[in-house]
Amino acid sequence: MSVLSLSKAVSSLSDRLSQLFDHSQQSGILQLVEDVSLPPLMSWLAAQNQFPKIYWQGRDRREEVAAIGSCLDLSFIEAVDDSKLQQIYQQYCQQPHSVDVRFYGGVAFDRTLPSWPEFGRARFLVPRVELRRQEDSAQLLVNLNLNEQSLAQQVQQALAVLAQLCPAQPLLPPQKTEVLSRVDVPDFSRWSQLVTEVTSPAFNCHTPKVVLSRQSKLHVTQTPDPWTVLACWQGRNPTSFQFGFQFSPEHSFISCTPERLYRRRQDQLVTEALAGTTVRGLTADEDEKLAQQLLDDHKNSHENQFVGTHIVSELTPLSVQVNADEPLKIFKLNHIQHLHRVIKAQLRHDVSDFQLLQSLHPTPAVGGFPKKAALQYIAANEGYNRGWYAGTCGFLSSQLSEFAVAIRSALLEPGCINLFAGAGILTGSDPSLEWQELENKLATIMSILVDF
Ligand SMILES: C=C(O[C@H]1C=CC=C(C(=O)O)[C@@H]1O)C(=O)O
Ligand SMILES: [Mg+2]
């Protein structure tokens, strides 16, 4: 049987929705699925006028998702109530008729602090409509939440969303943005003070690593379309995760991050230590030499080691077995390269994604070591609110969950683009070199946004 085009699959699903029969004993999420031949998902998402909009592509390109609307939206503005989140999640995911319910969302860098409006300290949702590409299959899914409303009401809402879908439009490369001004927080002089303090023996003896970061606020004449920017970013770093959350037309958070927090398939977990950075060479020889220097460099290996050791010690009580790959490898991006160590674990059967998120996030690749002291120092000294930058974003489902670390990211708002970059500060860090590392980490997105 030939696979339906998206427009035919939408009509077929609409027909099926209209014919649904109300069994009053039904509860939870009812999911309708059609196999479909999909258009390019980012182009499709960019063309839609309904919110929220979510995009996700895993680093190994095994899953790509574009989703709009929601039938369940869990937003934690004042505090994250883990037990409530977990309870609601389990209630929706352990029902016999839920084929494959996924919760997409994110957790802020420091969930004990106020975060960005709309994004909250944590926000997870079950979309109304999802387009999913997985390995060789592609599906259109519609989710109905029978715990919140009657079947008839949910059907009506789903039909309205399907009726307003727009066809995908080709995405053109983004126009260069006119930057009126750029404000860095912290600025270089404050950054130097902070790096000097963190590397001083008096501080270092209790908190040996802090990942300091900077917000670069670009005031622009016109905010670009987030999906056009993300599509271009994806082209430059295809081996990174790409994701975006746009809860309303005004604000969007996009990321093209190389870093995985974890991927879990049943009880098999893959995570990693990604920290330690240098630039790419202009020739293959120079690139190789830079990679070797990075592998041999004491400060950078130490920077990575804090992350690996912490992850292994957090995973050990949750796992039957934990293995960290030896030796360290190199992860190459468009402008920079990182030290990389893969860590695998077989989880104990009673371990939930919420436990994993709590124990792994934030790793010393974005926070520091010890975690609590580093987070306190960041909150008191960095001078801006990180929100979802260096937070974690991804999806939860009963069989498969995956989260990326939200670095190499941008928050787009009316009239400004906020870019973020951080660097691990420890013994051996030099303020000017670490500042240059921040610039190197922004090089790809800056080359997409502005003319040099
Ligand atoms: C915190 C960031 O990068 C982390 C991940 C990889 C390498 C890092 C480093 O070498 O400092 C950082 O720990 C960022 O890009 O904003
Ligand atoms: Mg570094």
Automatic annotation (TrEMBL):
It is an enzyme of class 5 (isomerase). Pathway: Quinol/quinone metabolism; menaquinone biosynthesis; Quinol/quinone metabolism; 1,4-dihydroxy-2-naphthoate biosynthesis; 1,4-dihydroxy-2-naphthoate from chorismate: step 1/7. Its cofactor is Mg(2+). The keyword Magnesium applies. The active site is at K209, E259. Catalyzes the conversion of chorismate to isochorismate. Mg(2+) binds at E303, E437. Residues 189-441 form the Chorismate-utilising enzyme C-terminal domain. Belongs to the isochorismate synthase family. GO terms for molecular function: isochorismate synthase activity; magnesium ion binding. NCBIfam families: isochor_syn (TIGR00543). One of its GO terms (biological process) is menaquinone biosynthetic process. Its EC number is 5.4.4.2. The keyword Chaperone does not apply. HAMAP family: MenF. It catalyses: chorismate = isochorismate. It comes from Shewanella fodinae. It holds the Pfam family Chorismate_bind. PANTHER family: ISOCHORISMATE SYNTHASE 2, CHLOROPLASTIC (PTHR47253:SF4), PTHR47253. Keywords: Isomerase, Magnesium, Menaquinone biosynthesis, Metal-binding. SUPFAM superfamilies: ADC synthase. This is Isochorismate synthase MenF. InterPro entries: ADC_synthase (IPR005801), Chorismate_C (IPR015890), IsoChor_synthase (IPR004561), MenF (IPR034681), MenF-like (IPR044250).
